[in-house]
Amino acid sequence: ENPPQFILQPTDPEAAMRIIKQQVMDFQKSLDAQHDVAFVFTSFNYHQTMVVNNVSLTGSNFIIFTGQIDGMESRLIQHISQLNFALIAIPVKTKQHRMGFEVNLES
Q1: HEC profile for 48-91?
Q2: Is 60 exceeded by the pLDDT of residue 8?
Q3: How far apart are CA 80 and CA 60, in angstroms?
Q4: If DSSP codes are grouped into helix, strand and coil, which group holds residue 15?
Q5: Is this model's pTM higher than 0.85 or not?
Q6: CB 46, CB 31: distance < 8 Å
Q7: What pLDDT is recorded for position 107?
Q8: What are the φ and ψ backbone dihedral angles of 35, each rounded to 5 degrees?
Q9: What's the Cα-to-Cα distance from 95 to each of 11, 33, 35, 91, 98, rounded to whole Å?
Q10: 3-class SS string, 13-43
Q11: Which pairing describes strands 62-69 and 46-57: parallel, antiparallel, or unpaired?
């Protein structure tokens, strides 16, 4: 199966949020009860796995990911032109969660 192809303008944060949300939801549907979704963020040959609880968009071109990295509460702020990540399946350690998505265009 070929992944869907998206045309995304680098200045369209709402489209980026829609795509991220749809991809997360589709990926979650493919997982069994023993796995949950996590993000692996990549930049400059560095990568970090984050269990994301919430993805939010402010009125700017920044997307904010909140969750845990190595068990520590974390917040990652990325410009939509710099988004590079993979969705991965990780073993469920506690109750499986579903992340939230927020759009606040008034900021």
Answers
A1: EEEEEEEEEECCCCEEEEEEEECCEEEEEEEEHHHCCEEEEEEE
A2: no
A3: 9
A4: helix
A5: no
A6: no
A7: 46
A8: -130, 155
A9: 37, 10, 10, 11, 10
A10: HHHHHHHHHHHHHHHHHCCCCCEEEEEEEEE
A11: antiparallel
